[in-house]
Amino acid sequence: MVQVQFAGLYLLAFISILVTKINGNDVAFKLALEWPNSFCIEQKSKCKENLPSDWIIHGLWPKSKVKSRYMFNLSDISNHTRKLMKNWWPSITNNRTDEDLWRHEWEKHGIFAKENGSDMTLTQYFEKTIHLKTKYNISQFLEMCNITPSDSNLYRVEEIKLCIFEKTKHVPFICQRCEKYMLEVRICFDKRFVAVNCSDANNGLKLLYPKTVSASRIFQSNKRTGACTTCSDQIQIQNSDLVGRSKYSLLEFSYLWLLLSLCSWCLLF
């Protein structure tokens, strides 16, 4: 029975990715949740000493580029929401206060946010972001799959995606730092804030989910194959995700055939 469930889950995940590629990507927002240790691991001098022990909010980023008329004014945000923001949306760098961070995120992203075509107010934007953070508890999701912070264990991107897919029924985007560390989990939404699949990328990598900012020592002998940069905070529409893609690769069909065969084999036993 366990074999059937496991094979079926892989099949559902793969079909979900294929459906995204067929129907196009209806992403209007991305919620970016960040692992503090991964952010600070190679720039310790910039980070505060006592880092949060949970995933924090990096931002809620809209696809829209049409500004609203609302300006940043911290007093417009309720004390209750601000208290939650201090816990879940803090600045972890020494050169930026919490208020500086929130202002930056509003002026770069929030001012463009629209829900069902209507401009979101400052209060609506920050309250919505906090609500989504509480709904998508990444630490809890990963722990339920035995994916826990460690300075030695590596996890495959596919394993992480599958875990979150099992809990949300949608494919997340896993953002990595330096091709080594799991930096962010991004959940995608349509204009009504209904979760949708993110574009599929970064498969094949094995990433560290660092327990401490000293974890970089296990990678010191590895040759870096890419630039040590963070993922873009812009919502990109990739041609490979649009209806215009006329065919799938032989590898994709091979995977699907293999999964179908595996499911059939499991049902026999």
TrEMBL record:
The lineage of its organism: Eukaryota, Metazoa, Spiralia, Lophotrochozoa, Mollusca. This is Ribonuclease Oy-like. GO terms for biological process: RNA catabolic process. It comes from the Eukaryota. PANTHER family: RIBONUCLEASE T2 (PTHR11240). One of its GO terms (molecular function) is ribonuclease T2 activity. Keywords: Signal. The keyword RNA-binding does not apply. InterPro entries: RNase_T2-like (IPR001568), RNase_T2-like_sf (IPR036430), RNase_T2_His_AS_1 (IPR018188). It holds the Pfam family Ribonuclease_T2. Belongs to the RNase T2 family. Residues 1-24 form the signal peptide. The gene is LOC111101761. GO terms for cellular component: extracellular region.
